[in-house]
Amino acid sequence: MPWFVEKSDKITPPRLEELMRQTAEESKKRLSASPKRVLLLPPDITRAHSGAGRLTELLYQIFAKEAEVHVIPTLGQHVPHTPEENRRMFGGIPEERIHAHDWIGGSVLVGEIPADFVKEKSQGAADWPIPVVLNDMLMNEKWDIIIHVGHVVPHEVLGFANHNKNYFIGLGGKETICAAHIAAACCGIENNLGTLVTPVRACFNKAEDEYLGHLPDVYVQIVMARNAAGELVQTGLYVGDDLETYLAAARQSREQNITVLEEPLKKVVCVMQGDEFFSTWVANKAVYRTRMALADDGELLIIAPGLKRFGEQPEVEQIIRQYGYCGTPKTMEAYRRDPFLQNFAHAAAHLIHGSSEGRFRITYAPGHVSKEDIERVHFGYADLNETLKKYPPDKLKEGFNDMPSGERIFFIPTPSAGLWATRQKLYGRSSGFDT
What we know:
This protein has helices at residues 13-30, 52-63, 83-90, 115-121, 136-140, 165-170, 174-187, 189-192, 199-211, 243-257, 280-283, 285-290, 314-323, 328-337, 339-343, 345-353, 371-376, 384-390, 423-427; strands at residues 4-7, 37-41, 68-71, 107-113, 130-135, 145-151, 154-155, 159-160, 217-226, 232-240, 258-261, 265-271, 294-304, 361-366, 380-381, 399-402, 408-412, 419-422. A six-stranded mixed sheet has the order 1-10-9-6-2-3, sandwiched between helices. Strands 15-14-13-12-17-16 form a six-stranded mixed sheet. The chain is built from 19 helices and 18 strands.
């Protein structure tokens, strides 16, 4: 069970400060009365809107009075923060105390999730082992308290983000990230989204029990929702060290962050904020979170003023440019014959997740990527300035909008904060996965 829970229409900043003090007090009672070294594990800047950076700063200020405190943003394979991004995300935490996770050169092998277990949990969709390779600073240094801070929200691989995703993806090594992502893709993104325990999460739960039980850790899990004024605010905070803490937060997220529609949508317009989303690798959350709501032959228009690349590493950039978002059959054909793609299996999974499978159109209005490059990866292109004039985000409300042109659109200002699906798509799934 959670150590404690706070639920409200809006958890105010002063109350969040009190809750972080309570988190620190409970951590000292339960994990280490006089901590000398504390590790904070927040999300990266792609979840800046969650407020997790400020909570991390508060925890740093509390523990730094008596302990040596370090921060590792759970980047996974995302691009490390610049010093300016660290300041924007984490305020006054000293730069020398913030460490970039190196997913290729900075991880150690801890164990393995056996192939038989993966096959059982995925109902045969994946039949390979998942190596457990984790950040060496996490595993090899002595910590008295480890605190995860994260946003629980629907997710394409694990059903909902946060909890032990922080370890196995956020601080995972290349072998873990690749094997887990391609397994999730084989299970089907639309089977994963909004599911409390996906096959890959079941594998991670097993790995946490077997390999990480000795770590003195606790999860601080944030749930957010829009209030009556349309503001995205913190509505839930779950603090604890067990699976039920995650499940309770995920249940609230499922209630508040999934919009169920009776009919599919013909046109969806999304905004991916320019100070958070720089690659299609992360901006494609707009595709993931709306795909179950879009009508056949509908259109998803993504306004992405910060977009300047496709991948988060040069190798993935090369793969996306070479193959594009071409659908599952072509991607898997390439995966079976291309050793380079096999070596970056998470990129193959991303290509699958980011494709509409030809069912609906995906159009990008990017800030810094050319029309030729966008179309080369099988997306449609729209001019950013013209799109902003036609669909001014500051004048649109979330949900249905009737435009002066007579067009009717469904506007989503922060698609990464939720999931949109038709009732049939959400509740008519026949995967048999735990929900």
